[in-house]
Design goal:
Oligomer: single chain
Order of helices and strands: EHEEEEEEH
Number of strands: 7
Bound molecules: zinc ion
Number of domains: 1
Shape: globular
Radius of gyration: 18 Å
Strand order of the largest sheet: 1-6-5
């Protein structure tokens, strides 16, 4: 799995209607699918909101190790890192589509695996 899975306006999996986990075709309407979506909205008035089109979105998972100089405790003290899942998503919103919740679950497992690899090798930016 390559990360970020969405970088700027590019989402080749969505363009091909392909599940980014298992590669099945025909993803999206009119077929069944699972998705993760997030973003921000600009409040127009008390009853209406609109996408904040002048803003970009991001989605990341990360690790913040304990501060050993402050007697913090926890795994991997004095380390840190993050994994970009979505970077510079245009229009303040994004959606990531999957053919099934099974593939969605595998995707998040892959995200955590990639984050753990990054924490173990913080200077290898190709992970
Ligand atoms: Zn799939």
């Amino acid at each position: 799995m390559e990360f970020p899975t969405i970088n700027g306006e590019s989402d080749p999996y969505f363009d091909r209607r392909e599940c980014r986990v298992c590669g099945s075709k025909g993803l999206h309407e009119p077929n069944s699918f699972a998705y993760v979506s997030a973003g921000t909205m600009t409040k127009l008035d008390s009853r209406a909101s609109a996408p904040a089109l002048d803003q970009d979105s991001f989605f990341e998972v990360g690790w913040h190790g304990a501060h050993s100089d402050l007697d913090g405790t926890g795994e991997r003290p004095d380390t840190g890192g993050h994994l970009d899942i979505v970077k510079d998503g245009p229009g303040s919103q994004f959606a990531i589509y999957f053919c099934s919740t099974r593939c969605m679950r595998q995707f998040f497992n892959d995200c955590v695996d990639a984050l753990e690899a990054r924490i173990k090798n913080p200077f290898d930016r190709d992970l």
